[in-house]
Amino acid sequence: MSALIVFLPQHAATASTEFEYVLTHDGSAIADHGAALATLLPATTRAGSEVVAIVPAALLSWHRVELPKGTAAGSPRMRAVLEGALEDQLLDEPEALHFALQPQARAGEPAWVATCDRAWLRAAVVALEAAERPAARIVPEFAPEGVTTFYAVGQADQPMVVVAGTEGVTAVPLSTQVLPLLPALADDTPCIAEPAVAEIAEQVLQRRPELRHPSGRWMRAAQSDWDLAQFEFSSSGRARAWKKMGTAWADILSAPQWKPARWGAVALVVINLLAMNAWAWRERSALDQKREAIRTTLTETFPQVKVVVDAPLQMQRELTALRLATGTSSGNDLESMLGALSAAAPAQRALTSIEYSNGELRVRGMALPAEEARTLASSLKAQGFTANTQGEALAITAGSAR
């Protein structure tokens, strides 16, 4: 997945706001990271690239609801349903909040809902759009999924601890006073800290945490199934579908995990091309052998033929000349045609004229009814001749009509 991942600031974004970002070309390696004004953020020029905005954990609150039966996730009434379900849990007015439902939520089952300040999110989205870096997706920094993990994040002057897992997401200041409010930190609970707050995390949690740069976590967050761009922040279904298709195609073309598949596809194409070329070469070789056999037959049968241009035509000409020289009859001869006509024609039919030219016999005076004409044509066909009625004449040629 080629993406520009932008970490949204915690204050309202303006034209002078700097955004932290991570640029990746394959979804696994960091190509660039830093902080810049929205207008100076790197451009996503690769096919299928997208801009992913990340909402900080401190600005999201998480709630568990059960969707009423008969409610679909894409229903236009979903926001009103969520407002009613969360009315007693919200500290702010519902009109001031943005709601986002978890992916694949089903009616009648518990589902997570994320809320944040609507005006703050709109300001950040508008700032990116004004800089021609519109966010294709908006994802949470942490989501209620996976194994429960402690994360120490932020800066030394404002450290925070985030506990994220299937039981929810909790973000509070990193201090000994609030530690009792968090789930118990078991010995096997993963503990991760950013370099800026690692020392504080070790003092408060009484454990040496694993150090990780936030950019790596943002890349993993960008690959989440969550998308907070819902309701008024969502793009059209068609645009989202095309964007997903473009991103998937770009992943297939460049992502490391698709490298074996790409090599397999290339090998398959090469093998097919080689097989097709081998088959074509074999067919050409067989055809050349047949042509050579015909040429050999012609030159051996008629040694006077020195130059072979069209072997079948030249052989036909030589056979005709040989028959004329020896007086041997053929199917094209007048005698053969008259004999066949005599055997097939009805009795007591007087011919008024007989014409023969270039292997075609024309006779007049038969005037056969339609049924008798069809019978005559069938009889001549059985003898290897074709009969066609042309006006008052009956034309007969050697060979069957195609």
Automatic annotation (TrEMBL):
Residue ranges of domain GspL cytoplasmic actin-ATPase-like in the record: 14-142
GO process terms (BP): protein secretion by the type II secretion system
Gene Ontology CC: one annotated term: Gram-negative-bacterium-type cell wall
InterPro entries: ATPase_NBD (IPR043129), GspL_cyto_dom (IPR024230), T2SS_protein-GspL (IPR007812)
Protein's name according to its UniProt entry: General secretion pathway protein GspL
Organism: Caenimonas koreensis DSM 17982
